[in-house]
Amino acid sequence: MKFQKINKVMLIFPPARISTVGDKAVCPPMGLSYLASVIRDKYEVKILDSVVLGRNQERRLAWSYFEYGLSSDQIVQEVDKFSPQLVGISCLFSHHLPLIKELCGKIKQLSPEIITVTGGTHPSFLPEQSFKYSPGLDFIVIGEGEESFPAL
User: Which of 13, 95, 18, 23 is nearest to 54 (CA)?
Assistant: First the structure.
C-alpha cells in the first residue's frame, strides 16, 4: 500500500438485513456521526447512510430474510462521485461482513489506492477472521473508534 495524504473521508453505513417477518427501521448511524465529528476539522467527511437513501429498495436474500438500502453498486457509485482517499464501513453485526467483503473488493477495483477500513462489533471481536474473509480490507478499528480512528 502506498501512503498518501488524506483529504477526504467517506463513512458508510451499510444496508440493513432483517427477517421477512420483521419491520424496517431507520436509526441514525450514531457511531459514524461521532467519528465524523472527531475528524471533521482535519478532513472533508461525508456520511453515506445507505439505509436511508435506499429505504424503498429491497432485495430478498433467502426465504427468511431480506436486505434494504442502496445496493453495493450504488454505494460504489457514491464513492466514485466523492473521490475519497479513505472509506470507512460500519460493521455492527456479523451479517454485515459479506457486504464489507463485497464493498471493499469493488472499491479496490474502482481505485486500489483508496484505503478501506471497518470497525464495529464483529471486527472488534474477530479481527483476524474479518481480515481473512475480506481481502480488500486494509485496516480494522478495534473498540471505541473515536479514539483509534483519528490515530489511524
Answer: 13
Rounded Cα distance between 93 and 16, Å, is 10
Cut 0.70: pTM above it: yes
Amino acid at 105: G
**Beta carbons within 10 angstroms of residue 53's beta carbon:** 16
Answer yes or no: are the C-beta atoms of 61 and 42 closer than 8 Å: no
Query: What's the CA gap between 105 and 83, in Å, rounded?
Result: 16
If pLDDT is split at 50, 70 and 90, which confidence band does 88 have?
A: very high
Name residues whose C-beta falls within 8 Å of residue 143's C-beta, 6 or more positions apart in sequence.
Answer: 124
